[in-house]
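4.2 Preliminary Data

To establish feasibility before requesting continued support, the project team ran the inverse folding procedure on a target of 344 residues. The structure was first converted into the token representation described in Section 3, and no sequence information of any kind was made available to the design step. The complete token record follows.
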């Protein structure tokens, strides 16, 4: 079998002027050889050869056959145990110094150190070209813009508070039913941390950004964005719905504005029928139930109550846009909750 150099593809000739050498048996030394020869793709080097053109002359032990009996004086080259290749043939011809394993290891560590520095730089550049919460750690202006939280610290505080209520069984059940587990090996999902899922959810609430656009921002599919929003809506509702918004009479009285205290001292709540535009449902019946002739689009309605000093204290269930304000008030207002009329 003709020997061939794995680097320059030089073949063995009859004159034997070029010697071919196996890779070092030491695994660490093998890796150094592969890196110097720029052949990291080689996985099995047991049958590979490197010609002597890639070694410094001082890397060889030269043995001469015994010429005492006028035998042929053929020179056989053997590599030293710790020999390593040089970077190129030109280098091999010009250099006369021996590189020991320790010297090459030092060079290798410097090379790796430079690689890590470049990798960190590229990671930072990538971070600056994508939308993620980590990008805005020191940018409260954009945190305010995207989420309406005043600062990154406040965002983290709210997230941590939600984490204390984070029931893995509930949220994972919700996500498995709505979108499959978000901790699968799918590239779409494993890239979205819980913190960035919350960030995506808040951008949707604050900016009403389209799901397709959010998918581009976070480098996931639109369907993944939709499933994240549904899952987090259910999760946050399960947390916030347990909080009572209704203040006591004493609390309202203590915070009554001067004009309200003077003219309406018994008022505890100010109500209004609030109408919100929604996307057009795909179901024809839902389209009909949510159509608002006043807004000329699909909407949902709710009765919202605030205290005299402007704090939201009551939110009813949602109804379709076809529901009149009078019907909504009767179904969810004083009549249904037995509110004294004097307090409204």
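Position-by-position output of the design step:
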């Amino acid at each position: 079998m003709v020997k061939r150099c794995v680097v320059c593809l030089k073949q063995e000739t009859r004159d034997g002027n070029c010697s071919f050498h196996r890779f070092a048996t030491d695994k660490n030394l093998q890796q150094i050889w592969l890196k110097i020869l720029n052949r990291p793709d080689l996985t099995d080097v047991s049958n590979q050869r490197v010609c002597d053109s890639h070694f410094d002359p001082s890397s060889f032990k030269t043995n001469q056959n015994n010429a005492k009996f006028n035998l042929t004086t053929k020179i056989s080259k053997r590599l030293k145990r710790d020999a390593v290749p040089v970077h190129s043939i030109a280098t091999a011809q010009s250099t006369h110094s021996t590189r020991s394993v320790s010297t090459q290891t030092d060079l290798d560590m410097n090379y790796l150190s430079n690689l890590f520095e470049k990798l960190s730089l590229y990671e930072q550049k990538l971070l600056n070209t994508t939308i993620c919460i980590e990008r805005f750690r020191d940018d409260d202006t954009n945190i305010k813009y995207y989420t309406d939280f005043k600062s990154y610290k406040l965002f983290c505080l709210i997230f941590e508070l939600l984490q204390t209520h984070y029931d893995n069984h509930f949220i994972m059940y919700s996500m498995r039913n709505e979108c499959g587990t978000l901790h699968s090996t799918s590239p779409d999902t494993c890239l979205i941390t819980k913190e960035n899922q919350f960030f995506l959810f808040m951008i949707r609430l604050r900016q009403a950004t389209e799901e397709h656009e959010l998918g581009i921002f976070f480098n996931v599919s639109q369907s993944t964005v939709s499933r994240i929003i549904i899952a987090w809506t259910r999760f946050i509702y399960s947390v916030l719905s347990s909080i009572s918004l209704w203040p006591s009479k004493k609390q309202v009285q203590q915070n009554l504005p001067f004009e309200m205290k003077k003219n309406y001292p018994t008022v505890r709540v100010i109500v209004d029928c609030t109408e919100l535009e929604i996307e057009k449902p795909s179901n024809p019946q839902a389209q009909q139930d949510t159509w608002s002739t006043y807004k000329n689009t699909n909407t949902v309605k709710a009765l919202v109550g605030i205290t005299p000093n402007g704090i939201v204290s009551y939110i009813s269930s949602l109804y379709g846009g076809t529901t009149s304000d009078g019907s909504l008030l009767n179904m969810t207002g004083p009549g249904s909750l037995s509110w004294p009329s004097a307090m409204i």
